[in-house]
Amino acid sequence: MSIMEAINIGANALKTHGLRLDIHAKNIANVDTPNYVRKIPVLNATEDISFQGVMNVMKEDVFGSGTLPYLQGGVVFNGCVEDPTIGERIYAPGHPDADANGYIRSSNVNAMVDMADAIMAQRAYEANLALVNISRSMAAKAVEIGRG
After folding, report:
1. Where are the domains of the chain?
2. Rounded mean pLDDT of 101-111?
3. What pLDDT shows up at residue 146?
4. What are phi and psi of 146, to 5 degrees?
5. 81: which residues sit within 8 A by CB, 6+ positions away?
6. Per-residue pLDDT at 115 exceeds 70
7. What whole-number distance in Å separates Cα of residue 37 and Cα of residue 109?
8. What is the pLDDT of residues 65-83, one digit of tens each?
9. Spatial distance between the Cα atoms of 128 and 109, rounded to a whole number of angstroms
10. At what angle do helices 111-147 and 3-29 cross, to 10 degrees?
11. Closest CA to 50 of 71, 36, 33
């Protein structure tokens, strides 16, 4: 893996985890908004790194050409899905969103769950920022060595 590939993987992960953090922040901001449905970010690996996927790549590369497979890795943001959990029914007959019986649905956001998810997204963001910074310093050292 080249230094630029490592930087690109880190940059894509920064974008992905930044979007993930935004979604959790919106969920937390709407914890008391009636009829708000919690959004769950969907993240996927950029390549099939399952055991079967690796074995298929090895079958094609190792046994065919005698080289070990190179899997780039990385993460990609694939949008959001709505949390299927139903919010609590609250009796509020004067509310503009109330149904014919006077009930509204509260948000299905659990602030503690979204706070924990936001902390995980923040830590993943920080780890990938460190990856980009380390890769950048390695490139700078390589240039410095090349000048000497």
Report:
1. 3-30+39-82+109-147, 84-108
2. 93
3. 87
4. -65, -30
5. 39, 40, 42
6. yes
7. 7
8. 555 555 567 888 999 999 9
9. 28
10. 160
11. 71
- Which residue type is seen at 131? L
Mean per-residue pLDDT, 115-143: 94
* Amino acid in position 41: P
Residue 29 CA to residue 142 CA, distance in Å, equals: 46
| Closest among 133, 117, 109, 112 to 17, alpha carbons compared | 117
Q: CA end-to-end span of the chain, whole Å? A: 24
Name which of 97, 70, 67 is nearest 5 in CA terms: 70
Whole-number Å distance between alpha carbons of 42 and 83: 12
Whether the pTM exceeds 0.85: the reply is no
Whether the CB-CB separation of 43 and 75 falls below 8 Å is answered with yes
Beta strands in 1-130 (DSSP E): 39-45, 75-82, 89-91, 103-105
117 band by pLDDT with thresholds 50, 70 and 90: very high
Closest CA to 18 of 121, 129, 113, 132: 121
The maximal CA–CA distance of the chain, rounded, in angstroms, is 80
